[in-house]
Amino acid sequence: MTRRLAHGALMAACLAAALSVVVAQANPAYKLGRFSQGGRTFLGLVLNDSVAVDLSKADSSLPSDTSVLLERYDTLKSRLATIASEAAAKRPAHAYDVKALDTLPPVIPQNILNAAVNYTEHAAEMAGRSGNAVDAPTTPPPSEGIPGIWPRKPGDKRHNPYVFPKPVGAVIGDGDDIRIPPGREQVDWECELAIVIGRTADHVSVDRAKDYIFGYTLENDVSDRGGRADGRHGSDWFIGKGHSTFAPLGPYLVPKEFVPDPQKLPIKFTLSGQTMQDSTTERMTHSVTEMVSFVSHVLTLRPGDIIATGSPAGVGAARGVFMKPGQTAVCSIGGIGTLTNPVVAAGHSSGE
Q: How many helices and strands, by DSSP H and E, does the chain display?
């Protein structure tokens, strides 16, 4: 009797495992990316970070522009799920190995907004370096919020959010070179979870902010720590953040339904294999929904816009170590992906 019960339990477990595989194949998670092949650019549905299905060939009625697809995503979701399921069951002719393609930035946003010092430990390490961090933990938080933009709740001991624009012209994709500008030797990394906006957002509340999020990607907020020598008007965010190639983005966009909790994701940065940052998005000062609400009270956000949520501790400036030509920058966030970029001198490329 006991043996029959054990056998029955084993059979039930095997059946459950087999059923879970069938369900996973029927409803596979997917990502979205942009690719180039033989001079042709296309929007792809990515499975297992390894195969890209050309959406224009899977269904010619689908948008070829990422921002348009994001805007219409709610009505297209079921069709994309069907394409993913069919491709997982039987690989079609219009599916390609991503290694055989050039991976482009997954979206070209109208706006990129980056959170400054949104992790307490990063604020502490930067305050120790410069003595004038934007959000130094030794500075008491303000007694009120920002009128019309950020209402302050009683008992909130955090500083108000701080955001700066990152030039869209600095965007590069996975595998593209980060170029060290001539004469700028203090070029740093900041591995960040990036929010991808899916709907036009204007003065949205924190409680409703999730409705305006399409999903997530990665940004390496590359930073020039060399300053401008004259100290004019304080921090120079344009020199610090705006050089060409200083906004690696991607490799893909992950719809929010495949990210159970964006505040519980491991985040890691390595430089030529050496771990520099090792943290979790759980340590953010202001959450993803708070950042969307805050930014939308200043700027109307459009589908495809990016909000990078800040860097954890472990940047090079805190330890006097900076990126050098010949190194490789790798930003990884669990469930989102891995963004890899060679570091080169200006005027050179990693292929030389």
A: 7, 19
